[in-house]
Amino acid sequence: MTTQYDIHVEGLAKSYDKVEALRGVDFDVARGSIFALLGQNGAGKTTVVKILSTLLKADSGTASVNGFDIATQAADVRKSISLTGQFAAVDEILSGRENLVLVAHLRHLKDPGTLADALLDRFSLTDAGARRVSTYSGGMRRRLDIAMSLVGNPEVIFLDEPTTGLDPEARIEVWQAVKELAGHGTTVLLTTHYLEEAEQLADRIAILRGGRIVVNGTLGELKQLIPPAKVEYVEKQPTLEDVFLAIVGDHGKDGDAGDDRSVGAHE
Question: What is the pTM of this model?
Fold first, then answer.
């Protein structure tokens, strides 16, 4: 069975003055998958996203998104994609629902209210839909931002460092939203410098360094690039999780408050 690719990139190059940001980047993203592009700050991740979303022109190389050439069919590319940048692009004066309805109107879609309600439900924002976005937490704003990107059902979505600045709980909320995107068949290209984020989300991971893709594969394939670790036997110290489970693990199931323990307590 032939793999269908929603994103195909070959020989992509881009320079700013005398600085080579990209020096021949090649990769493919399969339809309905999550592809993570890793790299240090300044590695060129955002440049790749800007070129593929037609916001920036490459100096050389070719690329297609959803079957459309980014150079000669830019309008068709823009119709089939959505881009979520590093900071949530939401109107804080409007409510969550009003933000979604506004985007639906701008895309000239029918029944914007119904579309907005469906997306609020999909991203667990129904109860907050009537509230001003200024009252939302960071995770809620980011989920709303992604929901706004999905108005019109784009085939491909670019997420440029979507969890930058979020606390751990909000980051997990966004991860769940991204997983649901791929679950609904949306192709996702994700840039991040959080390694755990790529581990949690991506079907394939590419590392960008010095303007080139230096490795590209599944998490399992990338782990095989590292030599086996030297086995050393050391005394294992209990973690906080070990202590917690040892104290509450059995008693929590029965609701038994017996055998109460305290650090430093004397019998």
Answer: 0.77
